[in-house]
Amino acid sequence: MAFDVVCLRPEKDFLQVGVAPPTVPSITYRALDDPELKALLAEAKAVIIPAVGPKLSPDLFEGSSVKLVQVTGAGVDRLDDDAMKRPASRLQTLPGAATPPSPNIQYPWRWC
Fold this sequence. Notes:
This protein is of the alpha/beta class and 112 residues long.
């Protein structure tokens, strides 16, 4: 089954703070070592990753249809810079020490 969003955070992270994930778009929650991850990313439109953890292999994004990578936290050091420079890719994160200036990064919020 194809999903719109692949989330690399456990669903319980959201539920524990009272956030009920939407039913649309369709979301699947997977671990980084899930053997189906590359196949899921091949058809997903977006991926959500936590800011903390090991660097993601650029191979995960090869041939994928992912158009948005949302980092839940500040920083982009888990992502391969070249993989995120694909024309169809957009990266969103929060400003932080591990977030270098880049035209490939979008900030959903601006600090006042």
